[in-house]
Amino acid sequence: MRVLGAAFVRHATFTFASLALVIVAFQSISAQTCNLNGTVTLNFDSVTVAPGQFVDATSYLASYGIAWSSPEAGAMPVIENGTGTGSAAIPTSAPNYFATNSAPGLNNAPLTYTLSFCNPLSSVSFSSVAVVSTSTYPTWTATAYNAQGTQVGQSVGQTGGYGTAAQQFTISGSGITSLTFVSNQTTTTFTDRPIDNLTLVSDTPAPGYSLSAGTATPASVEPGSSSSATVTVIPVNGYTGTVTLACSISPTVTGSTAPSCSFGSGTNPVDVTSDGGGATLTFMTVGPSTSSSHFTNAFYALWLPIPGLVLTGLRFGYRRMYRQRILGFFLVVAMLGSLIAFSACSSGGNSGSGGGTSNGNSGTPAGTYTITITGSDPNGVTQTGTAATVAVKVN
Question: Does the residue 353 lie in any domain?
Fold first, then answer.
């Protein structure tokens, strides 16, 4: 079984010139990218690598703001998939680890490389990969330095042969800006010890944002009216980005009288600069219905003149039609009386002693409503502090 032996031989095609080009490109990237805020863990498994193969780790490190360098001409950082060794010690669920491949002809020589960090760290921890090869890995040291080049911490890993289990190492110190690995032994097959789960704890807190909200204006409203308040997004630890706001209302009201909340057009999502950003929250209520049984009473009144009109017609009509018209009159009166009586009975169940009440509703129920505002960032930056709230009273 082997872990890196064949991989090291394959690396002989790399030249110093190609490495120099990689380093120049990396320096350009790292100058623009720094994602070492709070606690960050690199487990290397997000990179696609075929079993038993490796890829250049330069761009992966650069995406976090980590620069790799080595005085050894032709050496390079790699991410390798260890499942090609056929050993159960390398799980298929997490097959990748980080290593530095030596230059051609240096398989039995000391190797030194340095990881430089874009933000100062308070601790660095990592695990050494279990030895699954019949060969022996070297003794090595990992030394942490601050920006002034002063050593602030160190960890030593002993030589390991076949069957050596994975080990966990932690180096703590103030303002760690670089970590230098040195292989001390020159009589082993491999010049460094592969590592995994590189966890970096930054002295710089992770950026974020908090929300605050002003008092609603007006603070109390009648059903059918609205109120508004200003919501402010406050950057924390240098945060800049886009925050999408959402709102919810309690207590919950269901149906057509439920109040609603929204943010002003063009103000959500909020573009947050170093000075922050803001949006306008609007709380809207539903007005009462105007449907009333008085409409029915008016309907009755419209029919009152009809009997008189009928009688007038009878007076001036032809005498020979008198008896027929009398009969028709009584039929019409009977029909109208039945209709009015039926309508009155139907509305009577909805009428109080006041003679006619609303058949609709009174709008949004009275009470004090709390609007809760939350935010979300498309890159997963979390909101700090408590959610912002606004209170509005409905009379």
Answer: no
